[in-house]
TrEMBL record:
Core-binding (CB) domain location: 21-105
Example of a GO biological process term: DNA recombination
The name this protein goes by in its record: Site-specific recombinase XerC
Source domain of life: Bacteria
Assigned keywords, A-Z: DNA integration, DNA recombination, DNA-binding
Length: 322
């Protein structure tokens, strides 16, 4: 494989494993799958991990070449995955392998997709695993932030935005200042969600207050809305925050606020999306409207964030007075 074919994506070289590079044309097609075909970086990383692990397993079996892979081989591999992975992870691995072989079939690298007929493990979820904060804990968290500094103003506005708009952190960190705009004398926010979708939402009055305070204090007029900070200086840069920066910030803020969470379910970026949806529904909101606000394709996905039954269950348990 030539250096021209090797492509660097976010610092990782997607060099085809030997089984997927029997010739230059196959190697090029493999790289195109991860670079030209998959646009979402999280999906790219997940599928790359899945394909790389499958290739390593295939090499260990020493059965043959790319054209020798059959459905029974893929099915056997899936069985081995189930011994060390949860069903959702197995399904992601299988999806990555299936999509890659579909791409290779279209590119005439292989004749058939050996993973097409292989079924993954059954997995049914009625409630998501994302930890949810109560409305009181969320208010405690927001009020605990010292907003006398630019970083404090930034953090309060960012957490509020994820809570009141049900926004994904990936969309929040990409926001530009111009994505917070006035419409009919009210502040609106524009989120650029997965798949290039533009999603406009009116700002809750508290979010409007926090965003105006943040922009007024920092003087930011253009560029990225939520910016990284220079270590220990408290000064914001021109660069956007990374997702891991937001997560680290949340963990710090939750600790300072003294909010208790189970060790196995740490409050993270997605918690505020789930918290906002749950509180909206708890106060009489409709699931179909929450679906639109969260920009979900299906109301079933939105339902995974609904934790109203948690409180109902707790109330019923407390009836056991012993």
């Amino acid at each position: 494989m030539t250096n021209e074919i090797a492509t660097i994506v976010r610092g990782a070289e997607f060099s085809p494993p030997a089984v997927f590079a029997p010739d230059p044309a196959a190697a090029k097609r493999f790289l195109e799958f991860f670079t030209a075909n998959i646009r979402n970086p999280n999906t790219r990383r997940a599928y790359w991990r899945a394909v790389r692990e499958f290739a390593a397993w295939w090499d260990q079996q020493n059965i043959g070449e790319l054209r020798d892979i059959e459905p029974v081989h893929v099915a056997t591999y899936v069985e081995t995955l189930q011994l060390r992975m949860a069903a959702p992870s197995v399904k992601v691995h299988l999806a990555g392998i299936k999509m890659l072989f579909d791409w290779l079939v279209i590119g005439q690298v292989v004749a058939i997709n050996p993973a097409a007929v292989v079924r993954g493990p059954k997995h049914s979820v009625k409630e998501g695993s994302t930890p949810v904060l109560s409305s009181d804990d969320t208010r405690t968290l927001l009020d605990s932030i010292d907003v006398s500094t630019p970083i404090g103003q930034r953090d309060r506005a960012l957490i509020a935005l994820m809570t009141y708009t049900f926004a994904r952190v990936g969309a929040v960190i990409k926001m530009q200042v111009e994505d917070a705009y006035e419409k009919n004398r009210r502040l609106w926010v524009c989120l650029h969600e997965k798949g290039g979708k533009r999603h406009d939402m009116p700002a809750h009055h508290s979010l409007e207050e926090y965003l105006h305070a943040y922009l007024d204090q920092t003087g930011i007029a253009d560029g990225f809305l939520f910016r990284s900070a220079i270590a220990r200086s408290g000064q914001l840069t021109d660069r956007p925050m990374a997702q891991q920066d937001v997560y680290a910030m949340i963990r710090r803020r939750v600790a300072v606020a003294g909010i208790e969470t189970p060790r196995s379910k740490k409050t993270g970026c997605h918690s505020f999306r789930a918290t906002g949806i749950t509180e909206y529904l708890r106060n009489g909101g409709q699931l179909e409207t929450a679906q639109k606000m969260a920009n979900h394709e299906s109301s079933r996905t939105t339902g995974l964030y609904d934790r109203r039954d948690d409180q109902v269950t707790l109330d019923e348990v407390e009836r056991i007075r012993i």
